[in-house]
Structure formats: C-alpha cells, structure tokens
Amino acid sequence: SFYVPVSEVFRRGAVRTVIVLVHTDMHQRGTVGSIRHLATSVVTVAPGTRGLGAVAKTTRRTKSGKLMQDEETFSINEDLSVTIHSKLSHPGHTHVNTDETEVDPTANLTFNLRLSDTERQAKEKLALPFVFSKEKKSALLQPGPGSGRILYEPDANDDYDQEDPDDDLDI
Predict the structure, then answer these.
(1) By the 8 A CB rule, do 84 and 73 touch?
(2) Lowest mean pLDDT across 2-6, 14-18, 24-28
(3) Separation of alpha carbons 121 and 21, rounded Å
(4) Which helix (H) or strand (E) element contains residue 137?
(5) Phi and psi, residue 120, nearest 5°
(6) What pLDDT was estimated at residue 1?
(7) Which stretches does UniProt call biased (Acidic residues) (predicted)?
C-alpha cells in the first residue's frame, strides 16, 4: 500500500477537489458543523413535498466569502436520468438554512441580556457624551480667537542643548 499525506497531495496540485458524503444523522453536530465550515460547497438533499421527487439545496462560498444558494426540485427516472422540476437561486443570501435547530447561546445564563420596552426607551433617550449634535459640532469646529497657536513660556529648569536635543533622554 502507498500512503501520501493529504497536505502533500494538495501541495503537489494533484487534487483540486475533494467530495465528501456525510450522513448528518450518523455524526455528532460538532463534526458536521466543522465539515460545513471547511467546505466551499454544501449540497443537502431531502425528500420533496407532496411526493414531487427530492429537493437539493446547494450553498456555495465564493473566494470573496459571499454565499450563493440554489434550490432545485428534481426526480430520478426509471432509466436513472434526472429531471429538474424547478430551480431557485438566492445570490448573496447570507443566512444558511440548516435542518438542525439552532441553539440559543443565551438560554442558560444567570443574567438577562434582553431589554424590556421601558429599558429600550430609556436607552434610546440617553444622550451619549461622545455623540455631538450638529450645533455642538459646528461650534467646536469654528475657529475662535487664539485657536491654532501654541504658547510656550520657557522655564528656568528646561534642559535645552543645541548639539544634542535628545541628550537628556535616558534610553
């Protein structure tokens, strides 16, 4: 038998595509999630509604990171040819539908992250100190008397040397 590490196969350029068949009901959620995260394309096949064959949902990630989703309803004929009944495309769709129920990470916390209506209203009314109104911005940006000048009065303890201005720094 001949064994070549997977990283070496990709480095040599012999393999450009790897296709993996994963039965999600046979693996743990974390394993399936990791494979989905690593994949550039995921095809999920499920039975169709009302006996119309099957539905294939394809999610592709482009090199720029944009997600493209396609959904096709198809059936397999007796001669094993495929008939496509309908095709829907969702370009730029960023939400990936999974058959697994999403777990709420805030479900078992000892503190509350949600705001009540009164708390939300109070938050919206709060004026933040670093957010300026238009009037305050224009007042701060208008040049006033003495603006733009630096006034410095030399002190008797100033150590100024013409030859080496950085001589007093201890580095």
Answers:
(1) yes
(2) 2-6
(3) 50
(4) helix 134-141
(5) -65, -40
(6) 45
(7) 155-171
Secondary structure percentages of the chain, helix, strand, coil, to 5: 25, 20, 55
Calpha distance 147→140 (Å, rounded): 11
Question: CB within 8 A of 13, min separation 6: which ones?
Answer: none
User: In Å, how far from its chain's centre is CA 127?
Assistant: 30
Closest CA to 56 of 78, 88, 18, 31: 88
C-alpha 13/C-alpha 2 separation (Å) is: 18
CA–CA dist 89, 70 (Å, integer): 4
Task: Kindly list the distances between the CA atom of residue 10 and the CA atoms of 14, 56, 110, in Å, as whole numbers in the listed order.
Answer: 6, 29, 47
Joined tokens for residue 68: 């493209």
What's the DSSP call for residue 103?
P
171 falls in which pLDDT band (50, 70, 90)?
Answer: low
Q: What type of residue sits at position 133?
A: S
Note the pTM of the prediction, 2 decimals. 0.43
- How far from each other are the two terminal CA atoms of the chain, in whole angstroms? 64
Question: What is the chain's length?
Answer: 171
Q: Which residue has the tokens 């004929």?
A: 77
